[in-house]
Amino acid sequence: MRVKIDDLKIGAVIAEDVMGMTSTPIIPKKTVVTGEHVEVLKAFLKKEVNVEGSATKREKIQIKAVEAKTKIKENESITLQFQQYFEETIQKYKLDFLKWQSGSAIDIANVRDYLYSLLEKAELETEIPPSLYLYNNESEYIYIHSISVGIISGLIAKKMGYGKGQYYQAALAGCLANAGMAKISHKIISKKNPLSSEEKLEIHEHPNHSLKMVQNSPLLKSETKLAIFQHHERLDGTGYPMGVKGNQLYPISRITAVADVFHALVSNRYYKQKLAPFKALELIRIDGFGKYDLSVINSLMSLIVNLSIGTKVMLSSGESGEVIFIKQSSPTRPLIKLNGEEIIDLEKARDIHIKEVY
Q: N or C: which end of the chain has fewer CB within 10 A?
């Protein structure tokens, strides 16, 4: 039976070899059609093919398995492409940061170009690309942190319904929030031991430096500059450098604050071991209650906590299992069925958390 390519069904069986300009078939007879086969036929401008019927139930199961593997490979390819571009963007920011340390002015247009290019790629995903919170290099923390906070801020703002112009400015705010670290002593920012009280006070000056570096730029909106200045402020007034609170923290400032602290928690530094993303989110949500905007936290969680029934997980206890129930009140602490059939409620087992998701 001849079937037009546009009408070709997944699971149909090719009745005869589909030939092209080569001595071997494009698709051999008896092949069970998958979505990939349809694309190949279209690429070779085939109008129709001869089919003999539909695949058996067993063949359809095999088709789904093949398509699932293909999808995994495609996702892995996208992830690798983003990772490569991410690393290239970090190096571009590093070059700029070294210039700022030497006294050069910030070229906002240049930062905007490479940051926006990366954000465009990150937007293609339905969640935050794992590279932004799993990629670690202690010696280049400040560069990785700045780019990551920028992209995470932009994606949170987009998730919250901001327009494109707004969430792109949020990304710039997150990226440039720590530009002022270029004015801090190199000995302090590269120190491998915990900071002294005096050194912490010097670090606390970096929002002031960041603001001075960007305040005359016409490419940044006033709320963007304010977010750069306020990214260490807290809703309860415990932040710095001004100790403002409540409505004195502007919306984008609240976003950069959460993005900044989240990435800091999931990053290895010389004197601090990173936390697993789920543990970091929990820490911000519970221990940081009153300090951060809950709507911002929830938006970040929805971009990272991609759990569903049946999701395979590795726990901090070293045990593995799968999610069997998710509590709306505590999305990072579902019920887990361990491989040994035991069921553990992470909301009650507070000393255990999800370390990895498969």
A: C
Q: Which two tokens stand for residue 41?
A: 């036929």
Per DSSP bridges, beta strands 312-315 and 320-327 are: antiparallel
74-304 architecture in CATH? Orthogonal Bundle (1.10)
Sheet holding 343-345, edge to edge: 343-345, 330-338, 320-327, 312-315, 354-357
C-alpha pair distances (Å), 88 with each of 94, 144, 155, 240 = 10, 11, 20, 32
- With tokens 């995994």, the residue in question is 72
Is the Cβ–Cβ distance between 189 and 151 less than 8 Å? no
| Domain-wise residue ranges, the chain | 2-55, 74-304, 312-357
Type of residue found at 298:
N
Rounded Cα distance between 221 and 161, Å, is 18
Q: What is the pTM of this model?
A: 0.76
Look up residue 18 and give its DSSP letter: B
Write down the architecture of domain 2-55 according to CATH. Answer: Alpha-Beta Complex (3.90)
In whole angstroms, give the CA distance from residue 114 to residue 312. 36
> From the centroid of its chain, how far is CA 104?
31
